[in-house]
Specification:
Layout lengths: L9 E10 L2 E5 L7 E5 L19 E7 L2 E7 L5 E5 L7 E6 L3 E6 L8 H13 L4 E5 L7 H16 L3 E4 L8 H8 L3 E5 L6 H8 L11 E2 L4 E2 L6 E5 L5 E4 L13 H4 L4 H4 L19 H8 L4 H17 L1
Parallel strand pairs: 3-5, 8-9, 8-11, 9-10, 11-15
Antiparallel strand pairs: 1-2, 1-4, 1-14, 2-3, 4-5, 6-7, 12-13, 14-15
Amino acid sequence: MTEEVKIPPKGQAVVVKHTGSHYLLSQLPEWNLFPAVLRGKVRLKGSTATNPVAVGDVVDYIFEDEMGAITAIHPRKNYIIRRSANLSREAHIIAANLDHAYLIVTMAFPETKLAFVDRFLVTCEAYGVPVTILINKRDLYDEALEEMSAAFRGIYEGAGYDILEVSAITGENVDALRERLAGKVNLFSGTSGVGKSSLIKALDPSLELIRTAEISSAHLQGRHTTTFYEMYPIASGGFVIDSPGIRGFGLVDFKKEELSTYFPEMLKVMDNCRFSPCTHTHEPGCAVKAAVDAGTISPDRYYSYLGMLEEENKYR
C-alpha cells in the first residue's frame, strides 16, 4: 500500500486537474493529490479568460477538513490561450507554466489542417512556450502519406520547427519522446482523433485513467475522449498534460503589426523590407514577399499569415 501523504495546512501547489468548479492540486514534483475549490473571486491580475485557474498554475491554498481552498494564483511564466470560437470574445487558457508543448498532428484519419497548426505555433511563439510537432500514426503510412509527411516536414522544418514522427501503435520513436519529457511539465495538444491519449498510454502503460476512442468514419474526425484538462506523472520522469481535442483555434490579443514576428522564417528577413513597419501584403520592396516568391518561405505559411490578419480585422 502507498503511504498516505499528509497535506500541510497551507502552502503552494500546482493545479493538475480542472473539472468545472473543482480542482486537484499536487505539490510537484511530489505526486500528492488533494481536492480544492476556489475561494471568493480569485483571478490573475489582468486576465480576461473564462477559466481564472488553469492546469499548470501555481496557487496558494489552505487545507482543512480534507478539502483545499485556492486563495491566490501566482504569475504565470507562460501559457497557451485560444479564442473559444470564431469572432468570440471569450478566451480559454489551455495550460500554464509549461516547459514544452507538443502539437500532435496526423496526415490522415484525421488530416490536421495547416491553418490550425499555424495558429497553434503562432500562439506558442507569442506566449513564450517552446514547441515540437509530433507527427503521429506513422504506422498507417502508405506511399501517398509518406509524400504528405515529407511535404509537411519541408514546410515546418523550413520554418525552423522541431519535428518528430512517432507511432503509439508500433512504439516508433516513443523511447526518444519519453527521454525528452523527463523532468519537465509538457502539454500534449491537437485536434480530436490525432491520438494524444493513446500516445500518453504508450509512454507509460501503467496509466489506466485515460480513455481512447475510435475515429468516426463518417466524418474522419476523432471523438472527444478527454473531457477535462489533466496532468499525469510519467513513470520514467516528467509530467504530461492531456487536453480535449480542439476543433478551432482563434488567436487572442494579437496586434496586426506584430503578427509576422511570430513566424520565425519571416522574422529572419523582415529587417530587409524597404518600409518599417511593413504588413508584408502590398508594400513594394517587401523582403517577406520576395522570400515567398523565391520559395524560401512556404506559400502555405504566408497564406496562413494573411488569413490571420483578416481574422483580426473581422474581430476588431
